[in-house]
Design goal:
With about 325 residues, the chain is an alpha/beta fold. It has one domain: NAD(P)-binding Rossmann-like Domain (Rossmann fold), CATH 3.40.50. The chain has 12 helices and 11 strands. It is globular.
Length: about 325
């Protein structure tokens, strides 16, 4: 592969910005281009972004597509059945409930179907998928919000998930690095990577989300201490009460977004995986160690701690 490649990153948010940064450091890449929400007015007339990207690739003879998906596209399902340390081949049935997961599942289907599709020059489109999990690191706004919540409660960080609940966490730099390697090896080894899906992972030391969050925040501010588990029934009651008050007082009171029941059920359900597929297929190794990832995250949090806005809960961020 001695030609110089041009890469296009569609979306330059939390993960996308890090992908652009790492792509720009690769000497085999001629140019990195970004297509982001600044073009929103121009693309509002289109209904499905992923579908249009795939169609454009076939028309313009862009041969490779790496789609950034999420573990939310797989589960937990509407029955909230757990998956404990599965992998890319684990069979898990049922439909996801949260809108974010539904749209990711729909987009994944389009990407899988587009693999091998004929382009206008007679060549074939080659696609694969990376499923990110809970991603932390610089510019992870949910960490800002958690810090504000903790400081408002005398630096105590309480948590919703039971202590036996497992979820994977990955540093944003390692998620981005996996994208860089996948994009490169999709060109070098298309027969192996075409149509594949890869879960992101690194050496973040535990699948206990509340422990990871506490370590990240306490590294930045040692006064932050781990609190206690908030019982499911208590949060369920709070959600129902919030809904009732909102209905009664609408339109005179328009509260900030609050945790909903489908999201609560997702938080308390184990959905974890254990895999080395990316290592086996394209030699992936985390670019950043846990200590580096923790330090970088803490340094960023320190830098922005004085400019934090009022916290809000959002489905996608959680």
């Amino acid at each position: 592969m001695d030609r110089a490649w041009v890469y296009l990153v569609t979306g330059c948010g939390f993960i996308g910005e890090k992908i652009v940064e790492l792509l720009s450091q690769q000497d085999y890449i001629k140019e990195v281009r970004v297509f982001d929400s600044v073009a929103k007015g121009e693309v509002e007339k289109f209904t499905t972004g992923t579908e249009n990207v795939l169609r454009a690739c076939c028309v313009l003879n862009v041969p490779y597509v790496v789609y950034t998906s999420s573990v939310a596209a797989v589960g937990p399902n509407t029955s909230h059945e757990p998956m404990l340390r599965g992998n890319e081949d684990t069979i898990y049935s049922g439909e996801v409930e949260l809108p974010y997961g539904k749209t990711k599942a729909m987009a994944e289907k389009l990407v899988f179907e587009a693999n091998g599709k004929k382009m206008s020059n007679g060549g074939k489109l080659t696609t694969c998928i990376i499923r990110a999990n809970t991603v932390y690191g610089e510019k992870a706004t949910y960490l800002q919000e958690l810090y504000l919540f903790a400081k408002a409660r005398n630096s105590v960080l309480n948590y919703l998930e039971p202590e036996n609940t497992e979820r994977n966490y990955t540093y944003v730099g390692n998620v981005a690095w996996m994208h860089v390697l996948v994009a490169r090896n999709l060109q070098l080894k298309p027969d192996l990577l075409a149509g594949q899906v890869y879960y992101s992972y690194d050496d973040t030391p535990t699948r206990k989300g509340f422990l990871i969050r506490h370590q990240l925040l306490s590294t930045m501010d040692p006064s932050v201490r781990l609190g206690s588990h908030i019982p499911y029934w208590k949060m369920w009651l709070m959600i129902q009460l919030h809904r009732m008050i909102k209905v009664i007082l609408y339109p005179f009171w328009k509260p900030q977004p609050f945790l909903n029941l489908p999201l609560l059920n997702t938080i308390v359900t184990t959905f974890s995986y254990e895999t080395d597929k990316a290592s086996r297929h394209f030699g992936y190794k985390p670019l950043f160690t846990w200590e580096e990832s923790k330090h970088r995250t803490a340094q960023w949090l320190k830098a922005v701690a004085g400019n934090l806005d009022t916290p809000q809960l959002h489905e996608k961020k959680n």
